Amino acid sequence: MVKTSSAKKLESAGQSKSPNEAVSGERESRPSPIDVHVGGRIRLRRTLLQMSQERLGDALGLTFQQVQKYERGANRVGASRLFDLSRVLDVPVSFFFDDLPAAYGSGGGARSNSVQAGGFAEAQDGFGAPDDLFSRKETVDLVRAYYRIIEQPVRKRVLDLIKSMGPERVTE
Question: CB-based contacts of 116: which residues, under 8 Å, 6+ apart?
Fold first, then answer.
């Protein structure tokens, strides 16, 4: 691999850059919108479980400051850490990417917007609704109260009751 002069200067100064950064220039100091989205989902789930950043950090072998950085998107979450988070927070790994705005997913990755995998995500209304319902205290309180109902049949009846009280949804 041929190193650029800027990569050589950084290396001689004791700093190194990835090959992509050496070619494309400095990495911006702003967090990626995807990292911010994933961090917000981590915070959402942690909050719904009434778990402190310290407790989550302990479960993962991290400090609460590291958890804060993940939640802000300042630190990128690696694949193994995301897997650990999914186990501790009791959600599938895909939860962290649910409701990712389409503009972020069209960067030429493995899946284009025109071809989407079917499954559970199709029928869901997301956590990232336009008015961000899940950042409201009353929504979090409702979800917490719902999950405090121990008996599954009772929980299902409560859900059916709430659905019956709202307006009918129009499906295409």
Answer: 122
- pLDDT tens track for 65-79: 999 999 999 999 999
The rounded distance, in Å, linking the Cα atoms of 32 and 145 is 34
Does residue 9 contact residue 25 with C-beta atoms inside 8 Å? no
Q: Measured between alpha carbons, how far is residue 113 from residues 11, 19, 96, 108, 117 in Å?
A: 40, 29, 18, 10, 10
Which residues have a Cβ under 8 Å from the Cβ of 46 and sit 6 or more positions away? 53, 56, 67, 71, 89
The rounded distance, in Å, linking the Cα atoms of 102 and 115 is 12
Residues 6+ apart with CB under 8 A from 141: none
How many helices (H) and strands (E) would you count in the chain?
A: 9, 0
Which is more confidently placed, 14 or 67?
Answer: 67
**Nearest residue to 172 (alpha-carbon basis) of 117, 122, 101:** 122
Q: What is the dihedral of CA 77, 83, 84, 86, to 10 degrees?
A: 100
Report yes or no on whether pTM surpasses 0.70: no
